[in-house]
Structures are given as C-alpha cells and as structure tokens.
Design a protein that fits this description.
Blueprint: E1 3-20, E2 25-38, E3 43-48, H1 52-55, H2 59-74, H3 82-91, H4 97-115, H5 119-122, E4 129-131, E5 134-136, H6 141-153, E6 158-162, H7 170-181, E7 186-190, H8 197-209, E8 214-218, H9 226-235, E9 240-242, H10 249-258, E10 263-266, H11 268-271, H12 274-287, E11 291-294, H13 300-312, E12 316-320, E13 332-334, E14 337-339, E15 342-344, E16 353-356, E17 363-364
Parallel strand pairs: 5-6, 6-7, 7-8, 8-9, 9-10, 10-11, 11-12
Antiparallel strand pairs: 1-2, 1-17, 2-3, 4-15, 13-16, 14-15
Helix pairs in contact: 2-3, 2-4, 3-4, 6-7, 7-8, 8-9, 10-12
Bound molecules: magnesium ion (MG).
The site of magnesium ion has 6 residues, from loops.
Length: 365
C-alpha cells in the first residue's frame, strides 16, 4: 500500500444551539476534511477544525500547512512503515497541530486498514463503549438552566458547564444549573482561562461552600500562567485540569512534574494527533495523573479518532466528546455510534470511516 494522493475538502454542520465559551461563540462546525489515498484504493480520513483562538489554526493555515509542507513528505511512500511516516509529518513544519492531527489520524486509519484491525485494538484494545458529557454554553443563568433541562431530558448524566465570562455571575450560573440538574448529575466546569488565580480560588470556594458539588474545573487561568495554575491547584477545593496549558507531550510532562494541575485534558488538535496523544497518556500513567479526552467543535471524523484512543487507554477516565451530538445532523458515514451520551467504537478496520455527505467536494493538494 503506497500513498498516491492527498485531497482536501470542507465540511459544514450546523449546531443545535450556538456554542459559547469565555473565548468565542460559533453557530456551526466548519472543518477541513482530508483524504489520504493509496494505490490499493484504501482511503484514510482525517479532519481539522479552525480553532484560531485556541490553537492558532485557521482554515487557510490548515490547508496551507498540509498542501505545502505535510503532503509532500508522505506522497509516494509505503504505508507499512507508519513510524517513519508519522516522524516525517511531525518534522515537516513547526506548530500547526491541527493540520498534523488530520494527517496523523488518516495515516493510523490506513495502517489499521492495511492490517485489517480497528485502531483501538492496534493501540492495545480495551473498552468498546464510552460515556460523554455534554457542554452547557456560558449564558445568563436562566438560559443555562433551560439548556440543562434539555440535556437532562436527552439523558445526559454529566454536564460540562462553561464559565469564566463576567466572573461575578459564575456562582449564580452554577446555582441555576445545579438546581435544574438535581443532586445526582455530575457537573464539571470550564473557565477557558477566564479567571485570575485569586478570583479562581475565591469562586471555587464559594461554589463548594454552597454545596454546588463541582467535579473538576478546567483551565481556570491564562494558558501561559503555569505559576497561576499551580497557585489555584494548591488551594482549590475542586480538582484542577489543565487544558489550554497543555498542547505538546513536553507541556504535559512539565505540568505533571511541577504538579501545576491535578488532571490533564488531551485533545488531538492541540497535540498533533494520536501519536503525541499516546505520549501524553504514557506520561500520565507514569505520574498517576488521570486524563480527559476532549475535542474542539469537531465533526465525527476527528472525534471518532479520539474515541479509539480513549477506548485503548484506561488512564483516560473522563470523556468530553460531544462534538457530533451538538450538531443538527451528522455528515460523516461510519465510525463510532453516538447515541446521545453513549458512544460505541466501530470494529471496522482502521478508524472505520466510510465517507462523508456528497456535498463535500474534495480537491487534490
Ligand atoms: Mg476546555
């Protein structure tokens, strides 16, 4: 099996409700889709979202990185030496983690197809099912209570509530969400860098003093402020998870060595794909740090790759893979089955993606 072509397309999927965090508000998923084609007819699929405010990756940057730097280093090469291919992709350009992730997952997809094995089994096997949370966007408390009611009616037992915008309102927001959710639903929160370290400790203390029972808080402070992150971790009554502060395996290692956070959120788009995600998971196993598997606003090609990783690594104990269920329809065929909070991995070879809707037009790099 030899790589013959790399093709790019654009995939669009409207969201049920606008997705709003401390960093942005968007109404649809608009991702770059990749096909890595081979001389056997096998096609590997990848996907990358333009999440400029987090990764710095725009649509133009993703397509440019793949066309000018990444595709040329894999073109014509054999699929049976996956390690060399992945190394070439990583070395082809600095940064551009989303573009690298899209190609990385397409290569794992092809390697699984080459050997007739689903990727999660290539990675060691394990669970076949996961339970995801669902995101409650940051809004006024009444709207968040309504969104919580809707999530509960859809059967979700774990909510990821966005906060960090107008910090003075955050305790009231959580009060409204907890009142609507009842005592048995797990509530985790994500401030998306929206608080100062002192503010974070004050707000988290207030939430726990009120009995709002927060499972964990993601990225309370600015991504670059590791000192501030550790300040919160050392004082918070709620476990602290690093998200925007962890892109690369080196970032994860530094945070674990300093105990700057209690937990780490792994996202393929931050670290550049399954290969680096596996390294972060290995560090986490060594340091005894539990991980979340997360996603950006992504459709099912990319989220499906994250499902395979999470099924194969027991250190990933928390699942935030709600991209597909936030959309009004699923433009991706095959892959994992997303039935609200229940995700079941596909046993088809590779990543199991069969294709995308016909309105996605692919062109050669
Ligand atoms: Mg986050």
């Amino acid at each position: 099996m030899r790589i013959t072509r790399v093709r790019l397309g654009r995939l669009s999927a409207p969201l049920r409700v606008p997705f709003t965090t401390a960093l942005r508000s968007v109404t649809s998923i608009e991702d770059v889709v990749v096909q890595v084609c081979t001389d056997t007819g096998a096609v590997g699929y990848g996907e990358a979202p333009p999440t400029g405010v987090i990764t710095g990756d725009t649509t133009g940057a993703i397509t440019g990185a793949i066309t000018d730097h990444i595709a040329p280093v894999i073109m014509g090469r054999p699929m049976d030496d996956l390690n060399t291919l992945l190394t070439r992709v990583n070395a082809s350009i600095v940064h551009n983690s989303s573009a690298k992730a899209a190609i990385d997952m397409a290569l794992w997809d092809l390697y699984g197809q080459l050997h007739g094995i689903p990727v999660y089994q290539l990675l060691g096997g394990g669970r076949r099912t996961l339970t995801t949370d669902i995101t409650i966007s940051v809004n006024d408390p009444d709207q968040m209570a309504a969104d919580t009611r809707n999530a509960i009616e859809r059967g979700y037992t774990c909510l990821k509530t966005k906060v960090g915008k107008d910090a003075a309102m955050d305790v009231a927001r959580l009060r409204a969400v907890r009142a609507q959710a009842g005592p048995d639903v797990t509530i985790r929160i994500d401030a998306n860098q929206g608080w100062t370290p002192a503010q974070a400790v004050r707000i988290l203390d207030a939430m726990q003093d009120e009995g709002l029972d927060i499972e964990l808080v993601e990225q309370p402070v600015a991504a670059a402020d590791l000192t501030g992150l550790k300040f919160v971790t050392d004082r918070s009554p709620v476990p602290v998870m690093a998200d925007e502060a962890v892109f690369t395996p080196s970032d994860a290692l530094a945070i674990m060595q300093q105990h700057a956070a209690d937990l780490v959120n792994i996202k393929l788009m931050k670290c550049g794909g399954l290969s680096n995600a596996l390294k972060i998971a290995s560090f986490a196993e060594i340091y005894g740090v539990e991980c979340m598997i997360g996603c950006m606003l992504e459709a099912k090609i990319a989220v499906n790759a994250a499902v395979h990783l999470a099924c194969a690594r027991s250190v990933i104990t928390k699942v935030d893979l709600d991209g597909p269920v936030l959309c009004t329809h699923d433009p991706v065929h095959g892959g994992a089955v997303f039935d609200e909070q229940a995700i079941t991995v596909s046993d088809a070879p590779g990543l199991g993606i069969a294709g995308v809707d016909d309105d996605v037009v692919f062109t050669d790099c």
